Task: inverse folding
């Protein structure tokens, strides 16, 4: 054991002497590795930061899974029922007029509240409405929600920028309005607006507060009110709910659970991955680009190391032969050159991590104002340790690989052919 | 006691065509003997020496050093054996130019790892003094003259007190004064320290003054 340690120490000290003699080339190679890792860390932090930011904004507003009813064409027409076993063709089949409410929604909500996987579940009514302003009318979406539960799910009260969240819970016929919509309608807290439902009824409601989520689509269209208020507006009974939104403790279970609940309650359903498929796909693609670019840079750095060691080995053929003659084994010789590659790799990787962190940190302090992402004031950067671990491993692996080939060549060199000239 | 036993040694070169360079070579060397191997260029004497050095493992027959059969051993085992038992001196000095003279001498001892660093350094200095190059101990090896480098290389060969000291034309590049010094040293090592010396040489004078002379021609020993 001690013998092995002194062997490694000896190989390392010879490697150190060689590297000192070739200081400039060594530094250039180290800088190459450092550059690759720096770019990797910076790009991955920035892109992941952006991904996480957009995901946060979107997912804060979207439940992990939703249950709802959808207007659907029947799979089996009436003709099929009357004449089974015959080919029946019905052109331009129309859907049946059904109520979009969920049957037994309150019972389902109680069931879900008792499920250990569920963090919170809330029933809601969503309906299309028009807001009148003089002679013009604006499209809007009114969400009748259980305000207490909705706050648990989406932290709605934290997004109120004017008025109060409490007021809407106690006052009937009051609503919370998106900041964009309020601007469009030129209303403020306490103002009255007229809402027209799809069926044509007109109602006056009071704006109790204004919220801002940062998502333009939501802020420009949506309003929240208590379920009771919306039920009244629609002339629907108290059991009328069109959607159940669920937040889970582990959001990865959403897909599986959505299927389970759909089968159990005969509702339609969707989960966050399905709702945001293009967003998630974009994240994966961006990540691939990062790894591609960093991989290319490291490959170039790896070639640098490969070159230096190969040159060094040709220059030092006689010395390698003499080391072998005086009792260094093939693997000792391999160790001398591999140590150099690994020192370059480790030093480059550590420097790369440090520079990558500094650049990422500097970028995270750059002010950034966007009309689309309203809650953003600085560039989003992620500082997860896993990127640093990946970067370091990546750097060491590339350099080890590019150092291994020349080192093996040195180990295999026949000392006699060299000593005899 | 025989330090070295060679029996039925055959060696072939396969490039460019198969060609037998050693034919049924066999001899024994006792401890403390000073042997010179002579012969014309291409007679196989260097090939024989490199086989004995354990660096060339491609042969038929048997080589036994200090009772150990050299055939079929691993590279690691042979390297350790060389490190412990064989000191090599080449025609061209072959020092590591980036290292100091002292470091060059110490390298095989550090590899052996038998003595602490201080003790090794002390021994290396003694050897350098013995060979009269101690003044250059801390200089880089590349800065020494040819004769000085060869003496440093001899010091390096002696650092682990090897059983056998092998030389491939060790005086080939030295002037007569330096040659005489080296010869005197080898002689002393053989007689006083009972170390075996095995030297391939073209130098008639050197060979004549050795204890024993093995003369080769066309891959065979003609006179032992």
Result:
């Amino acid at each position: 054991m001690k013998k092995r340690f002194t062997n490694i120490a000896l190989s390392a000290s010879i490697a150190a002497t060689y590297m000192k003699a070739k200081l400039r080339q060594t530094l250039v190679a180290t800088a190459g590795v450092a550059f690759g890792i720096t770019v990797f860390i910076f790009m991955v932090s920035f892109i992941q930061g952006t991904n996480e930011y957009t995901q946060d904004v979107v997912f804060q507003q979207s439940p992990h899974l939703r249950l709802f009813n959808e207007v659907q064409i029947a799979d089996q027409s009436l003709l099929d029922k009357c004449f089974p076993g015959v080919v029946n063709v019905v052109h331009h089949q129309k859907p049946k007029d059904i109520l979009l409410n969920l049957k037994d929604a309150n019972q389902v909500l109680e069931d879900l509240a008792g499920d250990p996987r569920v963090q919170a579940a809330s029933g809601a009514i969503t309906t299309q409405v028009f807001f009148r302003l003089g002679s013009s009318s604006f499209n809007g979406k009114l969400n009748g929600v259980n305000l207490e539960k909705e706050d648990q799910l989406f932290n709605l009260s934290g997004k109120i920028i004017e008025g109060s969240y409490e007021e809407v819970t106690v006052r009937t016929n009051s609503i919370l309005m998106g900041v964009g919509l309020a601007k469009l309608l030129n209303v403020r807290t306490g103002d009255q607006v007229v809402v027209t439902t799809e069926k044509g009824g007109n109602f006056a409601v009071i704006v109790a507060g204004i919220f801002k989520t940062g998502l333009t689509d939501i802020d420009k269209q949506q309003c929240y009110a208590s379920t009771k208020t919306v039920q009244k507006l629609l002339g629907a009974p108290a059991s009328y709910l069109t959607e159940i939104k669920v937040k889970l403790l582990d959001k990865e279970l959403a897909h599986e659970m959505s299927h389970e609940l759909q089968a159990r309650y005969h509702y339609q359903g969707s989960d966050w991955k399905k709702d945001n498929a293009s967003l998630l796909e974009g994240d994966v693609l961006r990540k691939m680009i990062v790894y591609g670019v960093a991989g290319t840079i490291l490959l170039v750095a790896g070639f640098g190391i490969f070159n230096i060691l190969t040159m060094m080995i040709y220059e030092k053929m006689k010395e390698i032969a003499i080391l072998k003659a005086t009792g260094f084994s093939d693997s000792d010789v391999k160790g001398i050159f591999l140590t150099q590659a690994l020192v370059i790799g480790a030093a480059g990787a550590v420097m790369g991590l440090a520079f990558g962190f500094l650049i990422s940190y500097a970028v995270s302090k750059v002010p950034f104002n966007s009309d689309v992402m309203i809650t953003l004031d600085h560039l989003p950067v992620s500082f997860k340790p896993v990127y640093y671990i990946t970067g370091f491993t990546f750097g060491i692996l590339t350099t080890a690989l590019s150092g291994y080939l020349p080192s093996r060549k040195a180990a295999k060199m026949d000392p006699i052919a060299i000593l005899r000239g | 006691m025989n330090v070295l036993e060679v029996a039925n040694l055959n060696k072939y070169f396969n490039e460019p065509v198969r060609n037998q360079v050693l034919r049924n070579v066999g001899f024994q060397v006792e401890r403390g003997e000073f042997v010179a191997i002579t012969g014309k260029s291409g007679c196989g004497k260097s090939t024989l020496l490199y086989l004995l050095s354990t660096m060339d493992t491609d042969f038929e027959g048997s080589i036994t050093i200090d009772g150990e059969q050299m055939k079929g051993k691993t590279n690691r085992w042979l390297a350790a054996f060389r490190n412990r038992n064989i000191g090599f001196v080449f025609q061209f000095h072959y020092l590591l130019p980036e290292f100091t003279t002292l470091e060059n001498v110490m390298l095989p001892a550090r590899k052996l790892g038998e003595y602490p660093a201080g003790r090794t350094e002390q021994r290396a200095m003694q050897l350098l003094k013995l060979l009269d190059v101690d003044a250059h101990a801390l200089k880089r090896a590349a800065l020494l003259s040819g004769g000085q480098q060869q003496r440093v290389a001899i010091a390096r060969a002696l650092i682990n007190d090897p059983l056998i000291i092998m030389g491939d034309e060790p005086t080939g590049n030295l002037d007569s004064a330096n040659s005489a010094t080296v010869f005197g040293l080898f002689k002393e090592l053989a007689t006083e320290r009972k170390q075996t010396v095995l030297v391939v040489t073209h130098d008639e004078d050197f060979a004549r003054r050795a204890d024993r002379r093995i003369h080769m021609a066309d891959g065979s020993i003609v006179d032992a």
Remarks:
- The two ends of chain A are 37 Å apart (CA to CA).
- Chain A touches chain B at residues 2-3, 6-7, 10, 17-18, 20-21, 318-319, 321-332, 415-416, 419-420 (CB under 8 Å).
- Chain A has a mean pLDDT of 84.
